[in-house]
Amino acid sequence: MSTPLTRLRRWFVAAIIAALLVVTGAYFYARHRVQNALKQIPEKIGLEIKQSATGFTVSKSAQGRTLFTIQASKAVQFKQGGHAELHDVQITLYGSDSSRFDQIRGTDFEYDQPSGNVIAKGEVQIDLQANPEGLLNPDQSPPKELKKTIHLTTRGLIFNQNTGDAHTRERVDFDLPQGSGSAVGVNYAAKANVLTLLSQVNLVFSGAAPATITAVRATITKDPHLVVLDHPHLRSGARQCDADEATLFLRRDNILDRVLARGNVLVKADSSQPEGSSQSAEARSEQLELIMAKQHDLLQTAVFSGDVRAEVGAADPMEDGRPRPSKLSDAPKASGQTARQAPMQGKAGRVVLEFSENNSSRKKNSSSRNLLTKVHAEDHVKLLQHQNPASGSASTQDLELTAQGVDFFLTKEKSRLDRAETSGAAQIAIRPTTGSGQQTLATAAKFDAYFDDAGQFSSIHGAPDARIVSQNPGQPDRISTSRVLDATFQPGSGIQSLMQQGTVTYVDGERKAWGDRARYTPGDQVLILTGSPRVGDGSMTTTANSMRLNRATGDAFAEGNVKTTYSDLKPQPGGALLSSSSPIHVTARSMSVHGTSAIALYTGDARLWQDANVVEAQSIEFDRDHRSMVALGSAGSETVSTVLVQNDRVQTDRVQADRSEEKTDGKSIPIVITSTRLTYADSERKAHFEGDVAAKGADVTITAKKMDAFLQARGSANQPLSGAGKLDRIVAREQVVITQPDRRATGDLLTYTASDDKFVLTGGPPSIFDAEHGKITGISLTFFRHDDRVLVEGNNLSPTVTQTRVAR
Questions:
Q1: 577-579-582-583 Cα dihedral, nearest 10 degrees
Q2: Quick one: residue 388, left, alpha or beta (phi over 0 = left, psi -120 to 50 = alpha)?
Q3: How far apart are the first and last CA of the chain?
Q4: d(CA 720, CA 493)
Q5: Is 595 helix (H, G, I), strand (E, B) or coil?
Q6: pLDDT tens digits for 687-728?
């Protein structure tokens, strides 16, 4: 918005103020002097003259100073009709303080005594200039040098000595030191003291700031001292200003005090850019007031009020040789935007521009002496910066800043937009240029914004009570709060990132997160939490070094020293490994959760445990709702390690053949099962192992390609609802090998039952090797670990069963 604001001084000060007012005021002043002088001519020359007179001079003095002189080469009065003719007339007006040296010249004037009209028969020349030397002399003398003369030319001037009114329907031309001007028709009403330029008012200024001012009509009044322009239009290069009406309020010394433009006020500017493109800027309002400085002929304040709208962007294409009017409500389209660089639109109820004097430009044109230093916008301020999707990436966004009030500060060197600060409640809305319907809203008690050399946002700081809300159609809002908020921008793309600091809290439905710092990137809608971050999702709580939360999809990622605890669990009768009410703990290097799913994937030295049951793997995918998991080892040496529990049976001192006399001490011993893959579902109470499976107990090791471990159901007499899950049986398949300290057995299928410590081995055919008794082979081998009994079954050709007792 800086381009049109900083150049307002050139339009109003150099043009309307320094020229139009001076010209029309001087013309009025000169016309008034002509009227008074001509009114006294008949009295000075006497009506009784009945013959021609040549070479006379008429003067009037007061208090030792000459007020004016009238010189004519010839005067003729006719008795009949009371007409008098004056030829080759020159009138010099000095003013009551001798500070003027104004001259009025004409070849022929006619005086009509009955009507009281003095009529210029030909062209009238008027020269207006000040003469400071006259203040030093007792009487007026011509200045040594004529400077800054204002010259007026007209024809058909009619002055009535009875009413004091004067008018002409002819063209009036102005020649000024800065340029020239004209109007068609002039009317002066003496009683009302009003001078009216009837039509086609036009002023053209040259010099450092060329400009043209046109108006349909201009009216000048003395009390109150003001100039009213109907439908004024100012154009200076690529800059222009329009309004339905403009009123110029003057001081007693004819110096402009303020300007009030009303009705459809429009200020526009186009400027060429280094890359060859062009930028347009325009401001619209119902009213514009310009207030001049008291001590200098400079603009002090400009006030836009009433539905103020502004836009900065690429120049609009020409239509019929005229710029196409821009609509502030139009958003940039996806096509044809390659020349447009981040168009910006503004809206407010009132905008105040403050100016100061540019001391480095005092010797230059007055328009460059005005320096815009501050812009204050209030009453529902809205600032919208569009991005160019044609030149940006898919992550470009439009940005909208709204506040009750905004103050913009400009640099003193180049009057460039430097920073801005909001007052009252403020909000930043971020919307993708693709129009997907999603948006991000950032609020704070106050925002401080900073701009780059191109006048675009470079950073924004918000504090306190910072808040970010992500909105996606059909999804609940995702909200993060903090003490402060800092936004950084990528030129041409919009906000690059939002950084929150100080007690950051994030809420996404039941999911909540906390941390010291959070970085949010609107392009991918990812929030990164650092500084002791913690995430809670229902009964799940996770801590890590850093966490990433996707505010669009709900995905969550944790990195570094991940620790998760699933608490407030209800016991699940009929379950096994993970059905206890005890907390479930998981540690890993990283964790990921997709959307609102209850499934979490832990990777990198993952470890999950509940009570004494432990699973370790390279990755563990855990389903909280179903209490199931999939654990995987790595392609190298990393394996899945699972710890289960079984009861250890200890024999009595007297060995009995009948196992019913055995007693147990109830001691639990762990069983560690390693594999490359584990799949477990608590509803099935089955742990399925694949890939180089090895189950190791106190004095036995079982290896196979595949293995299923079935656990005891909770709620039974042997398995309470709480405590460690206990093994019921194991089924191993493919290349089964059972190793004990003094025996080794092989086969293709093993069924092990923990209740009686019994191994049933088939397929292969199965075989067992004992170091003392040799190798035994059969169709089926059954042996018991604690009493070393072995049952061997044959096939149909050998139906006998051999029982062997091996003493230790």
A1: 80
A2: beta
A3: 99
A4: 61
A5: coil
A6: 999 988 999 988 899 999 999 999 888 765 555 555 556 788
